[in-house]
Amino acid sequence: MVTVARVRPGTIADELGIKPGTELLAVNGREVDDFLDWEFLTADDALLVHARLPDGVEVEFDIERPEGDPLGVELVPPSVRRCANRCEFCFIEGLPKGLRRNLYIRDDDYRLSFAYGNFATLSNLKERDERRIVEYRLSPLYVSVHATPWEARKLLLNNPRVPNILEQLTRLARHGIQFHGQMVVVPGLNDGEVLEATLTDLWNLGDAVITVAVVPVGLTQFNHLFKGESMGRDHASRLLAAVNRWGDRALEERGNRWVFGSDELYLLAGEPLPDAGFYEDFPQIENGVGAVASLRARLNEGLESLPIMAGRRIGVVTGTAMAPMMGELVRRIEERSQARFEVIRTENSLFGPGVTTAGLLVGADMRRVLAHRHDLDLVLIPAESINDDGLFLDDDTFESLRGAVPMPILASYDFVDVLAGEPDDAVMVGSA
Ligand code: SF4
Fold it and tell me: Which residues of 48-79 are buried (b: 16+ CB within 10 A; e: fewer)?
């Protein structure tokens, strides 16, 4: 059963009198268990919807809708399937205490993998789930593979009951389901032979595995479970060499690179990051694969649209990983805009110096580095560090940060998004 959260005015559901709180029980005689059932069972234009209204009365709606007209209901968000693993490197396991509750939810949900590209391990997949994946053609799925050798995977996921991922992927692949895979690599656990075996197994699944991302293990200062080695420069270089060897092979035999190292892997190895063309259509950018190349490309495209801001002093807050590369980018913006940019390299106070990503900086970090900067006319902070409600991970808000620092602040993904096309004065007043 799913519950209606909102009905869009003027839609079929509105005309039928469906109200928020209505429970949708079945469609065309088939029980509705969750949003996936609802979405797929209502794909037809002739629908018999069995529902329970908020006053408890059960009704049937006989719906003939003009082709493509939306029904107009928004559902109460689903309860998320929890993860049954205990990976030592789990980022959530490494969160400090006292953050907002939903940050501690360890989801492992194939439905969200299909709907939003969240990675799932498929460890909690039941037979019924596999049937649904096939029937509803939930493809591609984003799968945290980590290792295909079973024993290695049990160790990595810290779960002796984890199913055999290769058998799962093979069964699903037989029915035409495709995957984007990721391997979080822990030195000594799934590099070397395990890496080779895993990439070989995934390669042998043919078209079913569209891409694989190889990501070095990342730890916060709170990852007390972790007993393994962290990823040093030598490890990262060897890992990147193996990834590139496989990528070259894929390019030669299949015409695309297939396997990609994350940006973090290049940074750890001290290797230059590839250009945008390397990443094809950026299939795993949400996983930190090609994010820097994409930023460079967007900046290239938008550079000419930046206004002249002669003499302005603009600060750019970023994490310690991106700071060295930011210099090169802002020099180009300086040439175009005639403004003076300063890259403000900022350590993460919440997770510790080992967490270097700009998007994980918190409000307290921004306050620390900006509170006394009366010499700046404007500051750009990473837009990834705030959520849709304007909250940083430490619950500080963008609004209150704006009131606490002595200059206008804009949240930006790529400079161009907030600076382009703005007349000089508007940019300097800043109204994000
Ligand atoms: S699969 Fe591992 S890393 Fe992912 S949520 Fe579960 S315990 Fe954490």
Answer: ebbbbeeeeeeeebebeeeeeeebbbebeebe
Distance 286 CA to ligand 1 centre (A): 17
Report the C-alpha gap between 177 and 34 in whole angstroms: 21
Helix (H) or strand (E) holding 73: strand 73-75
Query: Which amino acids bring their CB within 6 angstroms of ligand 1?
Result: 83, 85-87, 90, 92, 106, 108, 121, 157
H or E element that contains 16: helix 12-16
Which atom of ligand 1 lies at the shortest distance from residue 121's CA? 1
**Residues 6+ positions from 85 with CB-CB distance below 8 Å:** 108, 121, 123, 157, 158, 159, 162
Of all protein residues, whose CA lies closest to atom 4 belonging to ligand 1? 90
Question: Residue 289, SS3?
Answer: coil
Report the distance separating Cα 411 and Cα 385, nearest Å. 9
pLDDT along the chain (432 residues), means of 10: 95 92 96 94 92 94 87 92 91 86 92 94 96 96 98 96 98 98 94 97 98 90 74 94 98 97 93 95 93 93 92 95 89 93 95 88 96 96 95 95 95 92 46 34
Residue whose Cα lies nearest atom 5 of ligand 1: it is 106
Name the 3-class secondary structure at 2. Answer: strand
The residue ranges of DSSP E strands in 295-404, in sequence order, are: 313-319, 340-346, 378-382
